[in-house]
Design a protein that fits this description.
Layout (H helix, E strand, L loop, with lengths): L20 H12 L4 H11 L3 H10 L11 E6 L2 H5 L2 H12 L5 E2 L5 E6 L11 E3 L2 E3 L7 H15 L1
Bound molecules: FE2/S2 (inorganic) cluster.
The site of FE2/S2 (inorganic) cluster (FES) has 12 residues, from α4.
Amino acid sequence: MGESAIPQGIGTGAWQGVENLIPLLQEVQGEYHHLPADVLRAISRRFNIPLTQVFHVATFYNCFSLEPRGHHQVKVCLGTACHVRGAQRILDRILRELGMPACGTTRDYAFTVEPVRCLGCCALAPIVRVDERTYGHLQQSKIPKVLQHYRSLAEVAA
Ligand code: FES
């Protein structure tokens, strides 16, 4: 695949050189919710950055993923404070609601669920963060409503 693999509007203008690789990859991640290999190859060619360097950066930072991720990122804190306040039951309920046997990405790519260690607001345990929003003191009974909120966002956008 050629340079057409790079989404329109990404990598234009001031995007030149390796110093801009991270913001460029952030744009691609934002567009695709992961970093497709053909886009990484196209970036390497267009900006004359060794492919090994592109992949090194793409795999070094947690904010990047080579695997397709869901449209909404659900981070369930399993840190100590959240654990003692029932975080595992919260995670189990989320997985059950989404019909998932384990953490990962739903088949429709609507959600990616992953456990994390301490989101830095232990006083609000148990904590779940969906995209940029933090849900504190989350009760199992509220989970269907929270997930439905994000499902309806996707329906509006479709
Ligand atoms: S342990 Fe969950 S926010 Fe700190």
